[in-house]
Amino acid sequence: MPDTTAESDNPHAGHAMPGSASDESIPQSGPPPEALSGPAHAADTVFAPGTMAEAREQLRREQGGANFTLVSIDRLEAQIAEGEDGYLWEANAWYGGDIDKLWIKSEGEGEFGGTLEEAEIQALWSHAIDPWFDFQAGIRYDIRPEPDRAHAVLGIQGLAPYFFEVDAAAFLSDEGDLTARIEAEYDQRITQRLILQPRVEIGLSAQDIPELGIGAGVTGLEAGLRLRYEIVQQFAPYIGVEWQRQFGDTADFTRAAGGDSDRFVFLAGAKFWF
Q: Which of 252, 245, 199 lies closest to 220 in space, CA to CA?
């Protein structure tokens, strides 16, 4: 009798292997032309095309084409320094979709019991240039310090490698003054609720602007640490410390006005969004 042990023990016995003669019946060149000869949307052959067009548009809006809104107060804080206590805010709001958004940004600061020292508002069109960064363009208006000024704005904002959040912008004022600002921050989670955030901000100017107390070059540096606790995802109080340093003529202007060009401040504030 013939020996069939080898065949019965082989799990691939009777199976056609790629490249074998019995593999010739398997299609090798994709779908046949007939598969592409029907309507673009097969459901149109069953339901009214107008009804299906409305359904597809609703799906597009809900699954990628929808517009959303976010309002966030990234910094609302008291700054405690020797002989000079103040407050600061940084707020953002946007409306739009994945590609295009309208951004409104505002920030300012002042002394407790004193006048508002600085305040600005920006209105920007934001366009995604890749999955990580947006190009932004628009206008900025300074309410303080006087004199009030308007600026054209060009910048980028997004998430750099290793999850550093970056916001860099150049400003050209209606007086022809060119300045720039670069901000970077990083959220380091210690626990699911406790987060340490290093933050750096650098200011630059292409020329002296004596009426605003700004000198040419690197005008100032703010480097700090904020430790926040997310009571809920939308609300997190924080404490921190920050080193604030001005350079060159900017520091000279500040000292001439009786200010401190090099100081450490303690911070207490809150971050929230809705």
A: 245
For 62, the token pair is 């809900």
State the pLDDT at residue 27.
60
DSSP state of 190: S
| CB burial of residue 190 (10 Å; 0-12, 13-18, 19+) | exposed
Residue 58, CA distances (Å) to 33, 54, 159, 196 in order: 31, 6, 30, 41
pLDDT, one tens digit per residue, over 10-39 is 655 555 555 554 556 666 677 777 777 777
Numbers of helices and strands, H then E, in the chain: 3, 13
Whether residue 175 contacts residue 149, with contact meaning beta carbons closer than 8 Å, is answered with: yes
pTM: 0.78
Q: Quick check: 152 and 172 in contact, CB under 8 A?
A: yes
Buried b (16+ CB within 10 A) or exposed e, 214-238: bbeeebbebebbbbbebeeeeebbb
Cα angle value 82/85/86 (rounded, 5°):
145
73 residue type, one letter? I
Cβ contact 185:199 at 8 Å: yes
Rounded alpha-carbon distances, angstroms, from residue 52 to 44, 45, 46, 55, 95: 7, 10, 10, 5, 29
Domains of the chain, start order: 68-273 (2.40.160.40)
How far the first Cα of the chain sits from its last, in Å, is 83
